[in-house]
Structure formats: structure tokens, C-alpha cells
Amino acid sequence: MSIDGRIGWSREELATRAAMDVPDGSYVNLGIGIPMLIASHLPSDREVWFHTENGVLGLGGAPSPDEVDPDMQNAGKEYAKIVLGAASFDSALSFAIVRGGHLDIAVLGAMQVSPSGDLANWSVPGRTPGVGGAMDLVTGTKQVWVLMDHTDRDGRTKLVDHCTLPLTGLRCVTRVYTTLGVFDIAGSYFDCRELAPGVHTQTVTELTGADVAFGHLR
Amino acid sequence: MIDKLRDDVLETMSIIPSGASVAIGGFGLTGVPAMLCDALCQLDRRDLHVVSNNAGIDPTGVGRLVHEGRLRKFTGSFPSNPEFLPLLHSGQVELELVPQGTLAERLRAAGAGVRAFYTPTSAGTDLATGNYPSRYDRDGHVVEWMSPKDVRVIDGQACVLEFALATDFALVKSTRADRLGNAAFRLASRNFNVPAAMAGRVTVCEAQTIVDAGDIDPDSVHLPGIFVQYVVQSKDRRLADPVVPVA
User: What ipTM does this complex have?
Assistant: First the structure.
């Protein structure tokens, strides 16, 4: 149930599963961590444009050592490539793109998500403070997807009735991909659309801290 | 004749006193005015209020200012520098944590004459309600919290009031600049450099390459020279036009 793959999807499989749902022609922002893996798992028939909040639309993959360009990093502060047709801009315009509702999908990691779509992913008491662009991304983007482990390192569920950690945004998440399955945000419960191979509804119910419905299960 | 070019970096930077507020461009390792930050250290400036997205990710740029304890306050979105946290928790530096897009817009607004604006970003979170520490005493107890923000529901959406963030000075790093202060940036190095330059009452631009007026095509000027007061040559002598790696 944890990401080391005891049951359910591995990180790579999770990214591959979410990548299948990214429509052709989408503008997408990928958060640091598992969401970033989506870029390298897209079906080959999709043209998807990646926005990076430090100011590029048309983010590419990782460069080889001799391809590193000192002026090109992604939002995770790693060196990155661009794709042909990319556009660069300053941070104010970059967040006009974000807040203005121009991006189709933001994919983020999370610590907690509630059935109303509340998201906690920026602050853990005692850790280094930092909010970055997460609060902007969740208020502006048309769809906010969360990609995460179903439970945390201590086995506690990350799908909760109410978030207890500091919120990034209220009623902002539209869909959650966890190691156990795919869930739509339904207001008072999680609507399970799909289970990872070998995962049973009972396991999901036991490992989820809020009501789960399986009526739309594929 | 306008000539904003200056040969002596230390002399140029000596106009910035200790205690000043300074907006500093850069994101990660791109577009960081590292030489200008070095100058602040060489001039032994202290008690600075630094406004920057990151607090540095290595001991250059803002990272050096943090390392040498030259800040009294940091305003930014991602102070993930490990050297920052002990300074915060021992009361040596104050923190104003701002969402990244709000930070960019507050700087832009300051330069654009917009005094304040409403944005949905952070509405309903601890950063809006003021339930977030901004200052600790030397024993690590919270002594001050962030100010709660005014909230107004606009078209059914809760929005918070954010004020323009003007600074005494701004330090930016450009790929190219001319004697008029016109500047151009490559790829992701533009980032906060444009909004920072707009926010600073006096802006110093560290240019990788200094070019003749007119060499930057007017349609390719990212930062019009009217926002820049001084231009100095960077020690960073990378080529201005390396091959751009694609995909």
C-alpha cells in the first residue's frame, strides 16, 4: 500500500495511468516528484504542452551533461530542455497564465486530500517553510489532479474526511490518482472510478479515511 | 546623454546602505545577480530586507547573503535553503511567506502604480488568516504572526487583498543590456528579474554581455531601460547565444 509497491501501482505505473487521461492538445503544469514522471509516460499520439512556473511554456526532458544550458531549469531547479516552439516569459506573466485559468490541468503531489477537494500539500510543522506556486496553481487551473501514495510512510491514509495539515486550497482538487486507484472528488465522498490491479474495494475502504463509493467503478 | 554603464561594481553598489529593502531576481540557478550579491557582502551591508523567490540553493547569490547572516527579513515563496531555518528559528531573521504568483504580481504592481489587488490565491489558508509565524525569539518561540488579509467575495469567489511591494533597490541579472538599461534574457533566466526591476526605486542590472544601443532589437527588449538605473558587466562571461537544446 505504500509506494514501495506492496500492493497497487508503482510510481511509474501511477504516472503511466494518469498520463493516459491527459487529452491531446492540453496545457499542463506538473509538480515536483511523481507528477513529473507523467511527461515521460505520455501516449505517443498526444501533443501536450508543459508549463513551468519559472517562465517557460514548452518544457522538455532532462538534458545530457553536454546539453545543459545554464539559463534553462525547471521549477524543481533542475536543468531542463525545451521543445521546439517553446515560449519564455517573466514570473508575473507566468502566473497570469496560472491564475488566469489558461492551464487545463495541474498535477500535484499531496499530503492530504478531502472528498470536498480540499488539498494540503505545502506545510508540515517543523519542516522548512515554503509554499512556491502551489496556492496559485490550485486556484487558477481548470482541473487539479493529485498523484500520491494512498497512505503515508507510517501507513496513515492520505484520503481524509477533513484535512488536518495546513491547506493549500479549498475545494480545488478534481481527481486523485493513488497507488490503489482513481478517485473523483464527489463532495461528501470519494467516487472510485478504477482500482489498481489486484486491489479490492474492501482494502480501499479500510485504507481511506472518508466514505468511498464504487458505483462508477470501471 | 544617458549612460547607465558603470565600470566599478563596488562603487555602484555602495549606494545601497545597510537596512535597505532589496528585490533580487533569479530562480534556482538561473538569472541570479550573484556578482551584485557578492558586492553587498564585500561592502559589509547588513540588516537587509531581501525580497526574492528563493533564499538561495547554494552559497552564491541570495544564498551567500543568508550564509553570512546579512538579512533582517526575507520575503519570498520558497526559503528552502537549509541555512535559513536556523536563522528563522533563533529570531535572527523575519519571514514573510508569499505565494509565488502573488509575489510576482506584488512586485509588478509596485512598478505599475497599482497600490493593491484582490486575488483568490491563498484565500482560506493559513497565509491569509495570519495563522503562520513570521518571527521567533532566540529560544524558538513564536513572537509574531503574519498579518491576516482582508477578504472580499468577488463573483462568488473569496479573494484576499494583497498590497504592492515596492523596494528601495532591485538587483537583476540579464543576458544582454545596453547603456540605456534595455535588457534581454534567455529562456528561464527572465523569471523574477522583470518584476523585481519594476519594484525597485533604483535598479542595478548585472549584464552577462553589454551591447551597443540598438543591438537588442526593439521587439526583443524584455525589460525597457526606463526601469534600470545602472548597468554593470557581469564576471559571468558565458556566451550570450549558446545553442539552445531542444526536446
Answer: 0.94
